[in-house]
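Fold this: CFA46 protein
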Amino acid sequence: QEILEKYHDLFTVQWEGVIGNMRAPSQAEWEQLLTNCSAFLFYGMERFLSHVLLNWLVAMNIPKCRLVILLDLVRSQQSYQRIADSDFHKSCLRIALERPTETAMLLSLTGVGSIIATQWYTNLEENAEKLETLFENLLSFGKTTGQTVHVLQK
């Protein structure tokens, strides 16, 4: 929340979404957010595709979304239990499609222009640092996504 407030003036006034842990977005909300945005940020626990229905995502056409930033793969004891319970009912192939590379490929096939995503599990503090670096470089300094990813890699 602090990071969003810090960079609020650099955002367009049309910033919308779901913030907080009060409730999970419905599939209709995911669809509306993804199809009506030019950039999409997911900052959450576990795998992004564990929150979105795969069959629904692959049927989407979202070419207006030029950038997706996935700061997922954060794990806590509670999120691990939730994902383990959810994965119990999924096939190995379905779980494999939720990995970072496969998620990026699926998003690309739906029309997304660029994808910035974490590749391995992390903690909340590291993800907050990544978000700060992303916003600082993309919004404050006006760097390209490629330049910003290069900064993150250092």
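The chain has one domain: 1-122. The two ends are 25 Å apart (CA to CA).
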